[in-house]
Queue: 2 jobs
Job 1
Amino acid sequence: MEKIGLFLGCNIPFNRPDIEYSIRFFLNELGVEIVEMEGAACCPAYGTMPSLGLLEWATASAWNLSIAEEKGVDMLTGCGSCYGVQNEANYYIHKHPEIKEKVNEILGKVGRKYDGTVKVWNVINFLYEKIGIDKLKQKIKYNLNGLKCGVQTGCHNLWPSKAFPSSEENTFFPTRMRQLIEAMGGVAPHYSTITDCCGMGALRSNAPEKSLALFKKKLDIIKEELNPDLNVIGCSSCLLQFDAGQSLLIEQKKIDYKIPALHLAQLTAIALGAEVDKATALASIPLNGVITKIKGGN
Amino acid sequence: MKKTGKPACEICKKGIPPKGIQGCPADAIKFEDKDEYVNLKVGAVIIATGFKPMAKTHFKEYSPHSPDVITSMEFERILSATGPTGGELKRPSDGTKPKTIAMISCVGSRDERYHSYCSKVCCMYMLKHARILKEKYPDIKLYLFFIDVRTAGKDFEEFYVYTRELGVKVIKGGRVSAVDVKPNGKLRVRAFDSDLCSPVELEADLVVLATAIEPPDGVDEMGRMFSATCGREGFLREVHTKLYPVETSARGVFIAGCVQGPKDIPESIAQSRAAASAAAALIIPGKIKFEAIVSEVDRDKCSSCGVCVPLCPYTAIRIEEYKGKEKAYIEPALCAGCGVCASACPSKAITFHGFTTEQILAQIDALTEA
Amino acid sequence: MEEGGVNVIDLTQADESFVKELEALGADELRECIQCGKCGATCPMALAGLEFFIKRLVHAANLGLREVLLDDSSVWGCQSCNRCVEICPMDIKPYEVIQAIRRAAVKVESCPANTYEGLRNLYRFGHAVFPKGFEERRKKAGLPEKPPTALSFEDLRKKYQEILRNTILEEIAPFPLD
C-alpha cells in the first residue's frame, strides 16, 4: 500500500479543517496509508522565516522535511503556500550545498538531519500522478452529473515550476484539475483568467481592499465567461478567498451573485462518498444546489 | 524575361502539372528535374544560408495553441499578394478580418532562456507591417508592444515617426506578460506600459509574435565541414568583428547575411558584396600569398605516426609519399599558423616558423635574466 | 515622498552598498535586469495598485535607493506567486529581490506589525497562522481538537524553538524567545 506523510500546515487544520477531513477521507478511500507528521510546524509562510533569510527559510522547512524523511515518506499538502515554500526550500537545499551544510548544523543541535530525499506533493499532482485519472474514475461513488466547475489551481501550485516534483505541461494553461473534475463526471472549461492571482495572501493581510478588488475582477470574469455551479480550488488559501472572501464582497454589496466554492480535496471526498456535513463543515457560501446535483443521480 | 501583362497562370503553385497541361506554358519550370549532387572544384566559398524564424510553441505564456497567435513570418505571408489568403487580411481561426491586432516584439530575443542577442530587424519590420496595414486599412487598430523601439539606421527613425503619425499605438517597456484566449475567441493581451506607469490590457483579434532570428538548422555541422567555427549563439563566426567581418577561421571560406548573425536586407547586401570582393581578391590574381608564420615538416625526421593530422583545425596536414615512405605534409596555403602540430609532434619534426624552440627558449632566457 | 514634498527622487542619494547588500541577501542576479517589463503586467502588486511592484522595485533596487525602498511597505504585499520567476527572460528571479528587500527591511525594523505577529505565533505555537476558535471548527469537521503538529507535542515544539533560536530570529525578534 502506498504511504504518504500528511502535512497539514496552518490554514487547513485551524481555519478549514473540513479540508483536512476530506484529504484524510479520500486517501483512505483510495487505499493510501496516512503517516502522521508528528511535530510538523508551519511551512514556514513566505512572510515569516523566508523574509528573514535564505538559511532561515531552508532551516525551518527542513525541520518538516526531516520528519518525513525519518519516516521514509513523501509529503502531501492541500495548501499552495506549504507546497511552494517547501518545494522551493528543497530546491535551495539541493542547489546550495553550503546552505544544506548549515541547515544540518542547526538541525544537528536537536538531533535531527535532512539529506534532501523528500518530495512535496499537492492534492492536484498527487491525484493526477500518484492515483491517476483511471483509478479515480473507477473509485467514485457519486458522479458529478455534469456539474459545471470553474477551476482555480492557485499560483503556488503552478510556479516556480522548476522547483516542483511534477508540473503542468503548460503552467499558463493548466488542465490537470480540469481533467480530474471531468474524470469525476463534472464539466470544467478553461477561462481567460484561470491563472490569475485570487488576491489571498500577503496582499489580503496588508491591503485587504486591494486584495478583494483583485479577487472581484477574477470572479466577475468567471461569472461572465463560465457562470459555473461551483468553483473548485486547488489551494486552501485561495479557497478562503473564494469562500469567505466572496461572502465579504456580497456583504459589501460589491457583487450580486453567489458561486459556492470547494477545495479539490473536498469535491473528491464527496464524490468518493464522504459525509457532506463534515467535508463541507466550514463553507460560508451555501452548497445545497451543488450537493443535490451530485447526490441527485448515481 | 519579357513582360506580357497577362496574369500569372499559377499552375506551378499547384505542384505537379495537372492533366492536360504539358508543364509550364512559359517553359519556366523543369518539372522533371530531380535533386542531384554536383561536384565543383572552387577556389573560395561564400556561405550565405540565411536564418530560421523561431517557432511560437516555446512561448507558453502567449497561448501558442491558439490559431490566432501567429509569428511575424506567417503574418508576412498573410499580407503578401502571393500568400495563402491572396493578400487579403484574414485571421486563421475563422477567416474574419481582424479589427484589432497586437504585435509583440522580442519574442525569444533578448531572452536568456532562448537567445540573449537582439534580433535587430524586428522593430523595423513590425513598423513596416503596421505601415502597410494602416495605409491599406485606416480603421484598423494596431498596438505594437516593444521593450524599447530600436531604429538605428538610415531613415529608420523617420519611418518610425511616420508610422506613429498613421495612428499606430506604441507601448514601451513593454514586453508582453501574457496572452490569454477568451471563450469568444478574442485574445487578452497584458503588458506593462512604462509611459503610463501602469499595467495595460487589450482585447485583440490577432496576435503577431516577432519571434527571434535563429541560426539555420545544421549550421554547426556545415561549419565543421568547412572548418569554420560557430559562436556561442550558433551563428558562423567572423575572424574579427571590425577588421575581417566576412572572413572565417578557414581560409577561402567567407560568410554573408544572417548565417553570421541577425541583420536586415541592406546590411546583408553590403556584407555579401564585401564577401564577393574578398573572394575575388583571393581568386583573381591566380596565385596565393602564403603567411610567413606557418608550420613545416622536416620529412626526414617524420616518423609517420600521423598524430598531427586529426589535430589540425584547418585540415592542412595530409600524409603523402616521400622517398618511398608515408610522411606528413603541411599545405602552406591552408595552414593558419596555430602551432598545434608543432607542439604535438613526438619526433620534433615540425618547425613552427617564427616560433622555433630555440627562439622561444631564447625569449625565456632573456626574460628570466632580468 | 513626504506629504507636500516635491516629487523627485535624488539619484545622488543612491547607495551602491545597498545593491551589494541585496545581492548578498539572495538577489544575486539583480543587476542583469534589462527592465523589459514582462513581470509588470501580471504582478498582483501592480494590478492591485501598490506604490511599488516588481518591475519598479527591481529598478529602484538596482539604483540603490535604500531610503525610498525601506520607507515603503509595498514589498510586504507581495503574494509570492512566483509568476515573475516563471516568466523572467533574464532569469533574475525577481521574487528573490522582494525577499532580499524584506530581509534588509527587517534588519532595520522597517516592516508591518503583522510580520512580528506571524513570527511570534510561529515561535510560540509552531504555526504562523493561529486563529482563535479552531477547536470548535475542528469539531465540526469531526476531527480531534488539536492537530498532530508541533502544537500537540511540547517536547518537539521546544526542539523546533531551539532551531529557530539558532537563526537570525534570535537577533531581530522584538519579543522574548524563551
Job 2
Amino acid sequence: MKIKRILMVSCLASGLLLTACGPKSSGGGSSGPIPIDPTVPEEARGTYAITMWGSEVEGVEELFKEQIQDFCELNPGLTINVTYEAVSEKDSAAKVLADVDAAADLYCFAQDQFADLVQGAALSRLGKVAQDAITANNDAGSVAAVTSGDYLYAYPMTADNGYFMYYDNTVVKANHLNSLEDILADCVAAERTFSMETSTSAWYLASFFFGTGCVSEWTTDDEGEFVAANDTFNSPQGLIAMRGMQHLVKSEYYVSSSNAAEQFAAARQAAVVVSGTWDYDKAVEALGEKLGVAELPSFTVDGQSYHLGSYSGNKLLGVKPTTDVKRARVLSTLALYLTSQDCQEERFDAVSWGPSNKVVAQMDKVTANPALAALLKQAQYAKPQGQIPGAWWDFAKVLGTVAAEAAQDDTAALQAGLTSYAESIDKVLHPTEQPVWALVGNFSRDSNNWWNAATAKRMTEGESGKWSTTVALAADDEFKVCKINSTTVLEWAYGASAVDQTASTAAAAFDLTGDNIKVLTAGSYLIVMTGTGVELRSAIA
Amino acid sequence: MAEELLNTNTPEVVEHKKDKRHMGLTASRTISNTVIYFILVIMTVVWLVPFIFLVLQSFRVESTGMVGYIIPEQWGFNNYVNLFTNTKFPKWFMNTFIIALATAALQTIIVLCMSYTLSRLRFGGRKFLMNFMLVLGMFPGMLTMIILYRVLADLHMTQQNSIPGLILVYAASSGMGYYVSKGFFDTLPKSLDEAARVDGANRAQVLLKVILPLSKPIVIYTLLTAFMGPWGDFAFASYIAFNNSNGMNVAVGLNSLISTPASIGKNYTMFCAGGVVVAIPITVLFLFLQKYYVEGVTGGAVKG
Amino acid sequence: MKKYSSLEYLRLTKIQRFFYKIACFFVGIPQFFKKIGLAIVKFAKKFGIGVKDEFKDLVMTFVNGDYKTRISYAIMGFGSFTRKQYGRGILFFLFEAIFIVYMALAGGYWISMLPSLGKIGPHQEYDPIWDVWVPAYGDNSFKILLYSVLTIFFIVAFIYTWRLNIKQNRISEEIIGSMPKRCLEKEKKQKIVELKKNNPDLSTEELSQKTKEIEDEYNQKIEEVPSKPLKSTKDDVMSLIDNEFHKTLLALPVTGILIFTVMPIIFMILVAFTNYSGQANGYTNHLFHWVGMDNFNTVLVWSNSGGASFSATFGEVLAWTLMWAFFATFSNYFLGMIVAMIINKKGIKLKKWWRTVLVLTIAIPQFISLLYVNKMFSYTGVINGVITNLGGTPVHFMDDYAEPWVSRLTVILVNIWIGIPYLMLIATGILMNIPADLYESAQIDGANVFQQYMKITLPYMLFVTGPYLLTSFTGNMNNFNVIFLLTGGAPTMINTPPNAASVGSTDLLITWLFKITTTAGSKYYLASVIGILVFLVVAIISIIVYNIIPSNKNEEDFQ
C-alpha cells in the first residue's frame, strides 16, 4: 500500500519534531543554520528550458513556478522556462526510472524511493556547498533521508510523514487512551471498529516493533545499494511485538485501513482510526465535536506495557544528472533555493506542508498548527524512516497476516513468521546465493573495468574458504579485490591495508601504499583472498 | 446477413411455423414471453445505466468528487467548461483524433494489402508467412513496448511528439490482424479474377478495378475498427506519452485526472464530462456504420 | 475405441464427426508427440540436404560460369549489369556497397561488443570549478544489443542476397544458353580426352575421324541449346504489378511486422537472458550483462527460503490467468448465446431495439466504461450507496481491502457485462444459419426446448465457433484493458517476493508484466521471462486445441 505509506501531508513530521522538542537535537551538524547563496555564477546565466514533476495538489504548481520566477530575479540574466507536470510523489521513481533520459530535470518524490533512484543514477550528487547547507539547515532525520554512502543526493522539502490516532471521544474513555487493550474494549462495547492498517502496510505494522525497541535500519553505499541491515525484528522483543499486534488484529472490531474519511463514515463506523495529519480535515468533517486526537497508545504483553512507535518521513526534491556543468550548477542552486528556509516557509503558508528546515520548524505559526499536538506527542516514539529497500515493505507486511492467522500467543507460528522475515532480509542483502571474490581494475584483460562486476576477474574457491586466481599483470596495472555477485560489487577488500605479505610474495613487485594495489613488475601472479586479507604470490609455473 | 440481423424480423430459429398445431402451448408461450421481456428490460437497464449515470454525473455542479447518489442536486455545464479551459483535454482530443485518422488510413491500406494477397494470390512462402504470423501473434504485444519505447525515444517520437510514434506503433504491425478481412476476400468468387485476367488485365488492375469496388463493407469495417482503436488504448499510449501532458491521448489524459485519491475528489465530474465528450462522436459514427461492424464481427468469428 | 473406416466416417453426421475427432484426439496424444519428434527429424534431414545442395550449386555455378558470373562472387550485380539487366545489377551492387561500408564503420563494432554488452560503465565525476557532480558515460549496452540484433539481421539478409545474386547469374546464363553451351563444350573436350586415353592404339586418322564425330554430335547439341533474351529492367518493374504483385503488396505490411514485431520480440527474448532493468539501463546508470538462465530460475524454480518465492507467485498468477480466461470465455459464450436466442425467439417484439441497445455499448471506448464501472464499484461509489440505502454494509468489491475472491468474482461479472454484446452478435449470425428442418424433426421426435438446445444448437455452435473460442480464450488470457482499468490488479497479494511489483490477486500475467515494467526499478528481464512463458502457455493450448477442433477452414472451399 504505497499510497498509504507515502502520504500527502498538511503538517509537521515527527522527525523534525524530534529536534524541535528535546535536548536530543543533534541536528544535521553541530553548527547552526547557514544561509544559502541563491545566485549562480555570471557565466552560467542564460536561458534554460526545464521540466519539473511535482505534486498534483492544488496550489503547488503555482507556488513552484512563482518561486522559480523569484530565483530568476535573484539572478539577473537568468531565464528559466519551466514545464510543470503533475506527478504524484508516490509515482516519481517508477516514472523516472522507466527512462531517466526523458524524465524531468527537477522532480519531487517520497522518501521510500530514494535508494531506487540512487541505484538508478537518477539523482545528481550534491556539490560541497549544497551538502554543507542541507546538513546544517535540516533536522537529522531529513539529512539521513537524503544520504547514501558518503554523499547526499537530494534536497529535503518536507518532513511531515507520520501517524497518530483519531478517535470518537464518546466511545473511547479519556482514561483509556494510553492502553490499546482498554481502547479495544471500549470499541467492542460500543460495536465500533478500530482502524489501523496493520494487515496491508508495513509502514503501520512497524509501530508495534518499534514499541518493543526493535529497529530496522539499513545502510546504503554510494551507489544506493543496500549493503547492511541492523534489523532486530526477529528477536524475543519482536515476538512480544507480534503478540501485542495479535491483541489488535484478532479483535472482531479491527479493520485494516488508514482512510479516516471512509472509516468514520462507514456503515460499521470506526471509533478509532490511525492515520496522519493529511486526514485531519476529513476527520473533523466526519466527527465534528466528537473528534479526539491523541498519540498512539501502549499495548501490554505479560504485564509489561510498550508504547507504540511510528515512522517519520520526508518528501524530497531531486535533480536529474546532466553532463552540462552550467546547467547542472543552475539546477542544483535552484533546488537548494526551492528547499531553502524562505521557500519552505512560503510552502507551509500556501499548502501547509511541514518543513524540514530547522528554523521554519520552530516558527510559532508552524508549531501552532492544530493537528500538530498529537504528532508532537507521538514524535518521541517515532523513528526516522531512513533508507529502506522496496522489497522490505512487501515481506514485512506479511507479519500482519501471520499475527492474524496464528492462534493468540502461538509463539511457534509467530516465530516462523519472523524467521521467514529474517530470511527475506538476507535475500535482499545477498540476492544471488553465492557471491564470489574477484579482481577489478585496469589490468591487462580489459582497459578499464572498475565499475563492472560482470567483467571482473573471478576467483575460484579452494580449501578452507580461501579464494584464489592466477592473473598476468603488466607494470602500472592497478586493481582491487572485492566480493561480487553477478551484477554488483558487494564488498571491497580495501587496498593495501588488507594485504598480508608473506615470505613467498614478490614483495618488490607491488606498490601497496595507495588505495589500489599497483603492479611494479610485470608477471604472472597468484592472488589469494584468505578471508582475513589478500596475499600476493608469484605464480608457480 | 447483418442487415437482416438488425433491421428485419429475423427468421425464427428456435421454433418453427408448424407450432400452431399445438394450441395448448399458447398459454405457456405467453408466460415465457413475459419472462423474456422482463429479462430484456432488466438487461437494457443494466447495460445502459452506467452510461446514463455517467451523463448525469457530468452535469453535477454542487460537488466534484464521487458521491453515493445519482441525480445531481444542481445542474450545469461547469464540468464541460472546466474540461475545455482548465485542462489539456482539447489537446488530448486532437491528439487522439489525428492518431485515429492516420491509423485508420494506414491500417486499412496495410490490412487490405495483406489480406488480399494472402486470400487471392498464390506464391511461394505463403503458408510459411501465415504460420509465422500466427506464432508471432502468440507473443504478448505488451512485451514489444519496452524496446519500441526506447527506439522511438531515440527518434524523438515520444513525449510531446507522441503522435507519429503512436501512429507507427498502431499501424506498423496491423498486418497481423488480417483474418477478418481475408475471410471476406475468400468469399468473393475466383471467377471474377479469372475473367478479368482473360481480358488482359494485370493483377494490379484486377485488384483496383474488380475487387476493390466490391470491398466496400470490409473497407468500412477495417476503417471503423482502426479508427476506434486509438481512443481506447491505454498501455502503449501512456508509455509513449511518458508523463508529458501534451503527448497524451484521451484515455491517458482522462485517467491522469483521477489517478490519485486527491485528484478524484477534485476532478471526478470532469472525468465524467470528458467521457461523455469522447463517447458521443464515436457512438454516432458507430451508429451509422454498425451494419458493417456487425457483418465483420459475425463473419470474422465464423471463419476463425 | 472403435475406429471408423473412411466410409463409415462419411456416414456420420457433422456432430458425430466432431465428437469422434475429440475421442481420436485423446487416443492419439502419444502418437501426436511421436509425430512431432519425427517431424523434427525429417526437418533436420531436409535442412541438411538443403544446405548440401546449396553449396553444391555454389561450386558448380562457379566452375561452369563465365567470367561475369565468377566476378559476381566478389562484386555483386556484376553479371546482371554486364548482361544489361541494369536495374538488378545496380541494386545488387548498392546493397553490397552499403553492407561493406556499414560493417566497416559500425556493424563490426556492435558485433564485437555483443559478448560483453559493454565494458565501461558510467560514473559521476566531481567538477570543482562549478561545485557539481556530472555524469560520465561509457558504453551503451542497450544499443549494443539492439544494433547487434539489427546487424545480424543485416548479415543474414546479405548472405541471402549474395546467394540470390549467384543464383541469378546461373539462371541468366541458362536462359541465354551460355552455361549449357559451356557445359557441353567441356563434355565434348572430356570425351575427346577420354577417347585418346581409352584407345591409345588408334591411328591418327581414326582418331581424328572419331574426334570429328564427337565434335559434330556436340556441335549439333550446342546449336540446339535455346537462347532467350533476359528480362529488361522494365520487365522487372512491370512484373511487380503483375506476376510478382504479391511482393509489391506485402512490402509495406511485412516490413512493418519485421521492424515493429519481429525485431522487438527477438530483442526481448534476448533480454530474458540479461539483467536489463530500470536501474541497469545499460547507459546512464549501470551496464547490463548476460546472466544465462538466472531469470528463468528465479521465475520457475521453487525456492523455499526467505518468505515467498517468485515461482509460487508466478504459479498463483498463472492459475488465476487460466481460470479467468476459462470463465471469461465460457460465461460470455453461453450467456451471449442465450441472449441471442431469447431475442430471436418468435413473438418477441422490438428485436432491433434490444440488439441496438447492446451493440451500442461496444461503441463507447472501453476505458470510459471500465474506469466508470470501477468507480461505481468503489467503496464510496454508487453501488455501495444503494447497498447502504437498503440497509446493508458497504462491500469492498475490488479495491485493496477486498477479499481476493470477491474481487475476482466481480471482475468476471463485469466482464460478462462487457462481453455479451459481442457474443450476442456472433451467436445471432450463426444461429440463423442452423437449418430449420433439424429443429422440426427434433420436435416431431418430441424433444423439448432444452433437449433441442443440447442436441442441436450447442453442438452446432461449438462446431462453427471452435476456432473463435480458442482465439477468444487466448485473447482473454491477454486481456489487459479489462483487468488494468477495472481493478489495477487489486487487492494486492499479501505474501509476495521482492521484485514482484505489488502483484495483485486479480492481476493477469499480462498486467503483471506491465506492472513490473512500470514500477520503480522496472525489471525488464523478469517481464521478458513472463512474456516468453505466456507465449509458451498460449502456444501449448493452441496446439492442443487445434488438434481437437474440426477443421472447417479449408480456404479454397469458399471460392
